[in-house]
Amino acid sequence: MPRWCINDLGEKTDRIDWECSCLQGMCGACAMVINETPALACETFLKNIKGDELVLRPLRKFPVIHDLIVDRSVIHETLKSTNVYIGEYNPKEKEDHEHQYTVANCLKCGLCLEVCPNYTDGKSFFGAVYANDCFLVYARNTEKATDIHKSYAEHFASGCSKALSCMDVCPMHIPTLSSMAKMNRK
After folding, report:
1. DSSP letter at 151?
2. How far apart are the C-alpha atoms of 128 and 88, rounded to whole Å?
3. Are 123 and 73 contacting, i.e. CB atoms less than 8 angstroms apart?
4. Residue 186: its pLDDT value, please?
5. Angle, helices 73-81/128-140, rounded to nearest 10 degrees
6. What integer is the mean pLDDT of 85-90?
7. Alpha-carbon dihedral angle through residues 121, 127, 130, 135, given to the nearest 10 degrees
8. What angle do CA 82, 66, 170 make, to 5 degrees?
């Protein structure tokens, strides 16, 4: 078995650059495509890889910086441009604390966007990460509720085909379908 790798330029190398931070599935920095499956590298074990070859690719829906390092700033830019942040905590009377806590665990790793058949460039459809953050803000700030619901309808509800592949790859097991159901009832 060869001891070399091929980098993003097709050249033999013994080192491939990638990001990591926590090494325990809590930051999302090491998100990549491993043998055609989007996953966090730190939570993927070689003993579970089928076949004799390991193929690592960068997330294809984000600009590649170098090797396996991608620029996921579009995730934060869409949240910022649509004013999706809690601001002053001003909750509704009846709260779903358990679901809010689960949704707040999102790593913003981009795996949900990688598998989403509707997400392409982040210009009109913002994906599951956006839907979950909309629910979180909607539930925690009554003053922003109307604006958030309009933004959700425009940038998520109208473009989601309900493939739900986002839920299959989420390392935090966020039930996006539940967020969607709660937002669609409003």
Report:
1. H
2. 24
3. no
4. 66
5. 40
6. 78
7. 160
8. 50
Angle, helix 176-185 to helix 128-140, in steps of 10 degrees: 50
Q: Smallest Cα–Cα separation from 115: which of 161, 148, 64? A: 161
Q: Which pTM was predicted?
A: 0.88
| pLDDT over 80 at 122, yes or no | no
Count of CB atoms situated within 10 Å of the CB of 86: 16
- Per the DSSP assignment, residues forming a β-bridge with 39 are 32
* 125: helix, strand or coil: coil
Length of the chain: 186
Which residues, other chains included, contact 100 with Cβ-Cβ below 8 Å and sequence gap of 6+? 136, 139, 140
How would residue 111 be classed by pLDDT, with cut points 50, 70 and 90? very high
DSSP structure string for 21-84: SSSSSSS-TTEEEETTEEEEGGG--GGG--SS---EE--TTS-EEETTEE--HHHHHHHHHTT-
Run of H or E including 6: strand 5-6
Q: Could you tell me the two tokens for 94?
A: 């009846």
Does residue 14 sit in helix, strand or coil? coil
Name the residue with tokens 């949240």: 79
Q: For residue 2, is pLDDT > 80?
A: no
Token pair 């980098």 in the structure block, residue: 7
35 vs 169: CA distance, rounded Å: 14
- Look at residues 137, 131, 135, 138 and name the one whose alpha carbon lies nearest to residue 167: 131
